[in-house]
């Protein structure tokens, strides 16, 4: 991965939860997603471990950046509560 | 005319990236050489909460023809999927994506991929059994609700939402 940071290149990323409520973040293409996750969890008063984030159906890892994921300005991600497996009654 | 279909699909994709219903996935297929095939989309439709389909995330493939958007795309669940309106080969029988008015088709060129996928989500729990595409699911739906439900839950177990992201 190249470590040349594109100067001042930022993009807006929207995170939506299952009720379609959205939070918008303005980030650098090189910002690690874990920073965004943390900010989102704080805003929503959630435990960071309780939420998973999907981009195009793929789980996003904290070490990835918008550039790694090929994100574009205005792209949206899904925030889903982690489900615990259970059995049928 | 090929340009029309691709132009529209590129715009559909653009809109989807900005805004899509929670939990749904829809993206054009990536070919072996890394390029994008706008004419085939790999999608995921979540089972609606509060129904027997809840907890499932069902793979749907949408195949567009050069005649799109005048012609409706063909939509497929996996082969052998249990549902009254899904044919043996997985093709979904739904008026929204049927462009033959003589056969009850209600396709309009303005219908978006978002509407198609939401229509499929709705169809899952609300089958149209007067126009069945497969016998087993249709018969159980009418005669044995408990067995029908077991089959539905088996589909959810085969395509669980929480496996998502593990891939």
TrEMBL record, chain A:
* Stored Pfam families: Rad60-SLD
Q: Name one GO cellular component term.
A: nucleus
Q: Where in the cell is it found?
A: Nucleus
The answer, when asked if Nucleus is one of the entry's keywords, is yes
InterPro entries associated with the record = Rad60/SUMO-like_dom, Ubiquitin-like_dom, Ubiquitin-like_domsf
Q: What's the protein called, per UniProt? A: Small ubiquitin-related modifier
Q: Which UniProt keywords apply?
A: Nucleus, Ubl conjugation pathway
Q: Which organism is it from?
A: Raphidocelis subcapitata
Keyword check for Protease:
no
What region holds the Ubiquitin-like domain? 11-86
UniProt lists the family membership as follows:
Belongs to the ubiquitin family. SUMO subfamily.
Q: Return the PANTHER family for the record.
A: SMALL UBIQUITIN-RELATED MODIFIER
Automatic annotation (TrEMBL), chain B:
Q: Name one GO molecular function term.
A: transferase activity
Q: Which residues form the UBC core domain?
A: 4-161
Gene3D superfamilies, from UniProt?
Ubiquitin Conjugating Enzyme
| Name of a matching Pfam family | UQ_con
The family database entries (SMART domains) matched by this protein are listed as: UBCc
**Which SUPFAM superfamilies has this protein been placed in?**
UBC-like
Q: Which InterPro entries match?
A: Ub_conjugating_enzyme (IPR050113), UBC (IPR000608), UBQ-conjugating_AS (IPR023313), UBQ-conjugating_enzyme/RWD (IPR016135)
Keyword Transferase in the entry? The reply is yes
Q: Where is the active site?
A: 93 (glycyl thioester intermediate)
**Looking at the record, which segments are called Disordered?**
1-24
Q: Which family does it belong to?
A: Belongs to the ubiquitin-conjugating enzyme family.
What is the name of the protein in this document? SUMO-conjugating enzyme-like
Question: Lineage in the entry?
Answer: Eukaryota, Viridiplantae, Chlorophyta, core chlorophytes, Chlorophyceae
